[in-house]
Amino acid sequence: MSKSVTWDIEKPWLNSGFANAVNSFEKAFNNHEDRVSLGRQSQVFRYSTGSETYYIKQYFQALGFGAWFGLSRCQVEVRNLKWFAAIGINCAPLVAHGIEKKWFRIQRGVLVTANVKNSKDLQEIAEQESLFSNRRWRQKIICQLADMTKQLHKRNFCHNDFQWRNILVTLDEDSPEIFLIDCPFGRRFRWPVLTYRKIKDLGSLDEQAKKHLSKTDRLRFYKHYRGINRLTDTDKKSIRTMLERYPG
Fold it and tell me: Which CATH number fits domain 3-114: 3.30.470.20, 2.130.10.120, 3.40.50.300, 3.30.200.20?
C-alpha cells in the first residue's frame, strides 16, 4: 500500500527538548499517558519534557472530502495557527505538525502546540476562578476579546466554533492576555455567507456570556467590537437576529 508521512518542526523549536524527544510522526502518535480530551476524530495529550509542557493533538480519523481533496481539519488548524501568528493574533505557539497519507487519502494528522504558561481557558476561569469577579480584570478581557473578534472579522475570517473553552487567558491580575486555541473550522468567507458566519461567532460567544456576564457587560463587548458608543438600527437588528438564533 502506498504510504507517505510528513513531520515538520517549526524553526524556533528545532533545538528544543521536544524536538529531540519526539522526532518523528510515529512518536508523536504514541499513546501518551496524560490525555486531556477525547473527541470523535481527535484527542489531546499533555506532554512534558524537562521544564516545558506541550499539547499533542492527534487526529486519528479524517472524514469528508477534505481527506481526499483540499485540506484536512489538521491541516486547516495548522494553517490557521500560522496565519494568526503572522497577523499578530495571540495563539498557542505551533511547535510541530505532520500528516499520514495512504493512496493519496489523508489518514491521520498531528499538531503540537506549546503550553501558554499560567493560563486557563475562559470557561474554566468563569466557573472556578475568583479573578473573574474582579470587574477591572473582566473589562480588560472583554475589550481584548472584542478587539480580537473585530480583527478576524475585518479580514472576513470567522472562527466557526468560538466557544469560551477555545480561548486561553493568562491569570495575571494586572495585565491578562487572551490566546486562541483549537480552530480547525475557521476560514474566510464571502458575502452573503460572511454575515451569517459573523453572527454565528458572536452568538457562540454570547451563549456563554449570558451565564457569567451582565447585560451591560455583554453590550459593552458588542459596542467595543463595533467601535461605537450608540447602537444603530442595523446593530439592533443584528443583535435581535443573534439572540433569536442563539438563545442560550
Answer: 3.30.200.20
Tell me the backbone φ, ψ of residue 217, rounded to 5 degrees: -65, -40
The CA distance from 194 to 171, in Å, is 33
CB 12 within 8 A of CB 109: no
Count the Cβ atoms, other than its own, within 10 Å of residue 237: 11
- Taking residue 22's Cβ as centre, other Cβ atoms within 10 Å add up to 25
Report the 10 Å Cβ neighbour count for 89. 19
What tens digit of pLDDT does each residue of 142-158 get? 999 999 999 999 999 99
Within 8 A by CB and 6+ apart from 237, the residues are none
81 and 91 Cβ atoms separated by less than 8 Å: yes
Per-residue model confidence (pLDDT) at position 67: 47
User: Measuring CA to CA, how many Å separate 196 from each of 142, 151, 202?
Assistant: 22, 17, 10
